[in-house]
Design brief:
By secondary structure, the chain is of the alpha+beta class. It has a single domain, classed as DD-peptidase/beta-lactamase superfamily (Beta-lactamase), CATH 3.40.710.10. The chain is built from 9 helices and 12 strands. It has helices at 3-38, 48-53, 97-108, 138-148, 151-165, 169-179, 206-219, 221-224, 295-312; strands spanning 70-75, 80-85, 91-92, 114-116, 135-137, 186-187, 202-204, 231-235, 241-245, 257-265, 269-277, 283-291. The chain has a 5-stranded antiparallel sheet, sandwiched between helices. A hairpin with a 5-residue loop joins strand 8 and strand 9 (241-245). Helix 3 (97-108) runs parallel beside helix 5 (151-165), helix 3 crosses helix 6 and helix 5 crosses helix 6 (169-179). The longest helix is centred in the first third of the chain and has 36 residues, at 3-38. 50% of the residues are buried.
Amino acid sequence: MNTHDLEMLARRTRALRETGVTLLFASGLLALFLFVPLRQQSAPPSSAAIVVATSTPSSAFAHVHLEAKAAIVYDLARKKILYAKNADAQLPLASLTKLLTMYAALSELSPNTPITIPASVTHLSEPHAFSAGQVFTLSDLARLTLTASLNDGAAAIALATAARENDSESSMLAGAAAALNLAQTYAVNGNGLDVSTAISGGYGSAYDLARLAGALVAKSPTITSATTHSSAQAVSEGGTFFSVRNTDPMVSIIPHLLLSKTGYTDLAGGNLALVFDVGIGHPIAVIVLGSTLKSRFTDGVALVDATLAHFAGVASL
């Protein structure tokens, strides 16, 4: 995506950022309003706050047109689908597979676990950044890997996790998918690279990926927050400094972003995963699968735009 395209996206989404701030402030006022009576009365049913927030119209998504084969907007706080297009279709994930790899690793290993880059992963296709023998903490390697979608970093983390579990890489990833009840998700490798012209490194549905992205944010917000900046930095245990650029050029224009992850291969096309807060403690997942290299970003913006309009109670912004 070139500079002109980004400038157009930035202008289009300026209203989104302003709306996001307004929604966040309004959520705070609503929370304060609801909290005061709770100190004086018995607690109301948990659905009371939901009634207020779900009174917005669904027409905000009526005119959304996407290039993507499948997509979803999923309210992680309420476990509710706000928008879906072929959300249960099992499609190639490309580098969105790395979200499953990180969830598996962080479920098994401490963030401070040292991960050594094995020679076997240094030949993987770009993007890659490391040399054999370099050592990072899992936390640092995960931040670099997710931000820049590094194939060698993801492979190293997957191998280390499988070794700790004394299992194969594919079985280790299958266990992580099963733990989250991701019925449409499985992975052949930890980086998502196509295995052949007919077999992808990972498969899943938009619905599965929305829940996976939300689970990863909940498990390690400090790691996923690295993906919301234009770059990430870390130092190996040997003292080598690394700085990598984010593969998502939209991170500066999505309000209250919690996670961003891109993916692209010949089999998958353009994929995108976003998690952002629409209010205080109210995360929303946006997943785009099977779009194009450029349109995954415009698809993502369109869904974020519609989501903010939905919660603002208007048909469009």
